[in-house]
Amino acid sequence: MFKYTIKRLIMLLPVLFGVSVIVFIVMRVFASDPTSIILGQHATTEQIANLREELGLNQPLYMQYIDFLKGILHGNLGNSLITKTSVTQELLSRFPATVELAIVSIILASIVGITVGVISAVKQNSIIDYISMVLSLLGVSMPIFWLGLMLIVLFSVNMGLLPPAGRIQIGMEPAHITGLYLLDSLVTGNMEAFKSSLSHIILPAVALASYSTAIIARMTRSTMLEVIRQDYIRTARAKGVFENVIILGHALRNALIPIITVIGLQLGSLLGGAVLTETVFAWPGVGSYTIESILKSDYPVVQGAVMMLAVIFVLVNLLVDLLYSQLDPRIKYS
Fold it and tell me: How does it sit in the membrane (predicted)?
């Protein structure tokens, strides 16, 4: 397993190199000139030229890319063109919010998706199966930003049950312990803070989890249908084993590998793809910060955010692969 892990980490390098090239070129070709945004519409040509020289944007593109790579190798993603602050520090300060939202969403999606998938497989071709599959199809097809807006209108505007946006912690500093407000409030025993954090995260977590829930439910159903038709399941039933033990102890356990794969991929996607959800709910994470930076053509921030999320996505997939041997001892790594 150690050799396999090292091999996968080495394979990470060309992937990151490709990602760095793509995001660098896309920002330079399709994004607006940040100097016009910083100086405004009435800036003179001389002012723009001076600012471009100050920011290093007048250098050839290959020189700018080399400087970008040098910064990555030294753990420095540069400074924001707009705020002049360190990109690394800004991303790290917002990353806990993205992690918290992604973890709550994937937990919700896994619990609901696996439950619905198992019930649909056991009750195949029943009304429950048809309803769950229709809901799964809606979950896959429904735009997350639209669902988020509908949840805000229903539960915040009309019913007034939940806050529409933000991430507020009562009686606790934002950076307290880990920056994960739900966890921090539980560790400190601050139940008022926990209720506040929970109320703010429910709507964005439900919106973000909708697509993943549908994918996990469909995968669970198809995998369970394949497993429960196996000979050892029929043998267990013939021996008089309780149905719940057969389904949960035998069938579901042997169906977990593809399910875990989907959950891992969805977690990586949630960490890197919560952009629209964070924007709709004003969630102060990496996604909303990246959107703001794209609109301002803040090259270093966008480049740094994409690189960080690419690394996280690949590492999550690696972790999922390593979990396979724990679920199925027959799997060996080479």
Answer: Multi-pass membrane protein
Give 220's contacts (C-beta < 8 A, 6+ positions apart).
113, 114, 116, 117, 118, 120, 121, 255, 259
Q: Which domain holds residue 281?
A: 95-295
Do the domain assignments include residue 322? Answer: no
Query: How many domains are there within the chain?
Result: 1
Half-sphere exposure of 129 (CA within 13 A, CB side): 13
| Segment-wise mean pLDDT, segments of 10 residues, the chain, 334 residues | 78 85 84 75 78 79 85 82 86 87 91 91 87 86 86 89 74 55 76 81 90 90 88 83 82 83 83 78 86 85 86 81 68 60
Contact in structure between 101 and 201 (CB atoms under 8 Å) = yes
Domain annotation covers residue 285: yes
Is there a domain that residue 164 lies in? yes
Q: SS3 helix, strand, coil % of the chain, rounded to 5?
A: 75, 0, 25
